[in-house]
């Protein structure tokens, strides 16, 4: 696997993983929540868990393409966390704004 393919694959996986907590209404993608829906703190815990999972995938891809892992400072991880937050923005907007607008619009059409 070439480095360019590994980077592209990692970006696609990170984009999907960052949005999953806001696109899924199931807790840990398995358990259906109570009638009120999934609390926001659970979405954040899932998001952080997926951040670390994507980090492990990235380490595996780095080891596979380069044969070793480079040591990273705290700045690297802060930048990665910020990039993961930017990747999560479409799912966050869909969950907190767009979904409600679409539901209201469909109810108005049915009336």
TrEMBL record:
Annotated TM spans: 6-23, 44-64, 76-95
Question: What does the UniProt keyword field contain?
Answer: Membrane, Transmembrane, Transmembrane helix
Database matches in Pfam families: DUF2818
InterPro entries named in the record:
UCP019883
Q: Which domain of life is it from?
A: Bacteria
Q: What is this protein called?
A: Uncharacterized protein DUF2818
Species of origin reads Spiribacter vilamensis
> Which classification does the entry list for the species?
Bacteria, Pseudomonadati, Pseudomonadota, Gammaproteobacteria, Chromatiales
